[in-house]
């Protein structure tokens, strides 16, 4: 087990986007699928830094 956690270079932006969009989904203002799409689109900050944002 690591003694501390490491965050990626754009994790603050991603975390803020997740929080905002999940709040919208939980309060019924937006479907969860749409909220996830918005967050995915906002990962452009990570891609702009040359990071791979795909899984697999």
TrEMBL record:
Q: What is this protein called?
A: Uncharacterized protein
- Could you tell me which species this protein originates from? Kitasatospora indigofera
């Amino acid at each position: 087990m690591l003694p501390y956690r490491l965050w990626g270079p754009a994790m603050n932006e991603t975390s803020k986007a997740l929080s905002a969009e999940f709040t919208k989904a939980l309060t019924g203002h937006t479907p969860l699928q749409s909220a996830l799409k918005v967050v995915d689109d906002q990962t452009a900050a990570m891609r702009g830094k040359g990071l791979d944002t795909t899984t697999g």
